[in-house]
Structures are given as structure tokens and as C-alpha cells.
Write the C-alpha cells for this entry.
Amino acid sequence: MSELIVIFSLCLITLFGFSIIYLFGFLEDHNALAKIPYAFGLGSGLIAVYMFELGRSAPWHYPSLLLLPFFLILLTLILKHKKIQADLKNNIYFTKRNYFLLALIILQVVYTGFEVWLRPLYAWDGWASWLLKAKTFYLSGYFNPDIFHLIKDNYPYVINLVGTFIYYTLGHTDDRTVLLFFYLVYLMLGLHFFNRTKSLFFTFLLLSLQNVVRHGGRFEAGYADLTFGFYIFLCYSLFQNYLKTQRFKNLLLLSVFMGITALVKEEGWVLAVILELLIFYRTRHLVLLWLILFMDWRIYKYFNHITYSLYQNPIFQLGRLPETILLICKEFFNFKNWNLVWPAFFAALFLFWKKLNKDALFIIAGQLTAYIIVFLISPKPPGVHIPNVIDRLFLHFLPLAIYMVWAVNTDIEIGAATNPDKKNVLSSPKYL
Amino acid sequence: MKKILILWFVLSVARLGYNYLKIYTEERNWLTLTDYQKKVEMFGDDYLNISRPDFCTSHPKIQPGSRLYYFNYYYLYPNYCRV
């Protein structure tokens, strides 16, 4: 029963995201299927922001907390039902040869689902930070800053508050069913990747990576890194979408997503800055809406004296650079975690340099550079710090890396879904 | 490039098969365990200790940053032991 209630709350979050997308007219060139991952990402982020704004000064009142999402969903159904009906009609069809790949994806997704259902929370950061705060906020009844001081932590709140929302819907804390959120992130990542590429082949390759499976449902569900990677991929997709359509609304949505990403993990602001640079470079526009969300959180932290950080007194140690690079490169050969992603990525890099998407490469290089700088100023020696975190940091840009590999191998026909008139959906304006 | 992708695919399918085999050989035993038993299986003594009613009086030394330190807050909040 608990599982059904959590699934209901995650559906509610997604519908809340849908309602915002439809009411504000975002992503009008996408069909309903393509909107689902964005709706989930937007709904999760906005429900967290909404709960943060309500709970920072007063206790939450659970049933009335749901009024706004329900009202917006109802309003959307009334005002936009024709548009929704039109969006739902555009379905994807599979040819016979796709069924094998589809069956593999279903088997993979079922396996990960079984794993997430089987065990309670095991991931260290889950009970040491993300879901610990979710639980304490739920038990406190408001956004209680004391927990930040107890565990000397300053991480942002999106994942915590989605967890708190799930606990409110459940009526109690449950460290097994709450992991369904991370499983849904895994599913949505797969769906969004498929929506972008129409390649069942590459979608299966992404979803079957052991590190992705672990973070999506096995022992490491509870870490925020796969969620962060999912948001980075959504931001990148929105950026590409804006370049293609030049619609201001899409830029606005991108900025909201940048703000949410900055509140999923501390490193999110680095992505926001990288994207801001890219947007300015490519379009000569600046969109700083994300700063409102980000600065609001910073101001809250400042006034509540949440100033804990591992890097409070940084000393830049350039001498660590060779060891840092060596340890990072070592992870590229960790086939147990990554299978052949990184050999394929570097093969794409060297063999198809001219065809490569340089924006995606810039994001990956920017994030990686930021992490190298962090390792150079870290109080922990690289030999201790890097092996502890590097497999998780790679998850941040993994979807982008596989997307780049796909982009230079679009001639692999296997996995390309087609619509009924046998026309490849990639050429359809409904899919970007 | 194509050869890398095909090898990657073959390894992924093999791994998926291996994972299903693991469910049958190793993980099916977990199906009959209770939530408490699963946590004892995963966390060992730390979980047994934190579950004891006299934990705060019997375990006054909790190293900051240790697993027990976070378990103290995660499982006992708001009645956690003062560290």
C-alpha cells in the first residue's frame, strides 16, 4: 500500500509540473510523452521551492499544502484540455526489430524496480544528509534549520523536501518506499534520453550501466548524483531547444531549471554559470531568473548561520594536479562501473571531432574543471577524496557523454522508432 | 567505433542476465526478511546498537562523522543522543 501512495505522490508532482508547463505555454513544440520528464523535473523542483517558502517561517499544514497543486492541475484540465488531447494523439510505434531492444529495456527497468523495492535505504549520503533532512523536516513539521547545525551540512533542499512531501503523503516516514523517487529519476532519465535520440539501442546502453542501476535502485539509491545528472541533461536539452526555436518562453523555462539544478546539489551553480556563458556566447542574451531561486537559498543560509563547508579555508595546491588527473583518468577505465562508455566517448571525441556537439563538450569540460579545482583546494588528500566521490561525479555528465556518442552514430538504425506512416520520427517537428 | 558499441551492448546484455541470476541465487532470500532483519543484514552491529532502548546510556562515545553518528540522528530523531 505504501508503494501505491508514494507512486500517487510522484504522479501528483509530475502533474503539477505538467500544469505549469501547459498553463505558461512552455514546450509547445513537444508532445505529451516528450513533456513527461520535464514535468517530473519541474514538478519536483517547484514542489520543493513551494515547501521551502511555506515551511521556512511557519509549520506546514499538509492537506492544505495540496490545494495549490490540485487547483493548478484542475485549471489546466479546464483551460487546456484541447491542447492536452492533441498532444496525447502523437504516439510512438515500434517496428518488429525494435521489440527485442524494447524487451531488454523492460527487463532492465523491471530489475532495477525490483532492487529498489527490495531494500531499505543503504546509501551513506541518504541517511547522512538527503533523507535524514527529509525525515527531520517531516518530524519537525517545518523547514527546521537545526539539522544543518547538527550534522554541519549546507547542502540545498530540493531532494530533502521532495522526500518530506512523500512522507507527508504517506503519513509516516518510510526509508524503503521513498527510494521510489530515485527510481523514477532513473526512469525519467531513460525516457528523456529516448525522447531526445529515438534510439532504443542507446537508451538500453544508458539504463544498463551498473553505476546508473545502483543509483537508480540498488545500493546507492539515496544519493543525489543521478538526479543531478538528470537535471543537467534536461538543462542541456532546453538550451538546445532554445537555440533551435529562439522562443523566449523556452529560455525562461531553462532559467527555472537552472535554478532548480543549483538547488539539487551545491555544484549546480557551476552548471548554471556554464550555461549562462553558453547562452550569452550563442545568443547574446542573459537570463538571470535562476539567481532569484539561488540567492533566496543563500540568503536563508546566511541568516541562519548555515556556513559549514569543507572548503572554508581553501589553500590552492597546484602540486596535486598530476595525481588528481591520474586518479580521475583511472575512473575512465573502471569498466565495472561504466562498461565501455568512456572508450566510446573518447573514440567519438578523436574520430568525429568535427561532428561533435561542442556545447555538450563545453559543459562536460566545465564541470570536470570545476571538480579538479575542488580537489586542488580540498583539505583531504586527493588519494582519499577522489576515489570516494569520482564514480558519483561522473554520473553528472554521463547522459551528456552518451548523448554525444549517439550524436555521431545516428546511422545505427537499430532502435529508431517510427510512426505509423513509416516516417522516421526524428524528422517530425513534434520531436526535438 | 561500431565494434566498441557492439561489445558494449553484448556486455550489457550479459550483465543483465547475470543480475537476474543473482536475484535467483542470492537475493531471493531477502524476500522473506522483515525490514529489521534487512537492516541488520546491511548495517550489522551499528543497527543492532542503535535499536537498543538503552543506546544513549550504553554508548556514550559516538565518533563524529562515523556511521553511528549519522544513524543516531537518522533513526532516533528527535530523541537522539547528545554527541
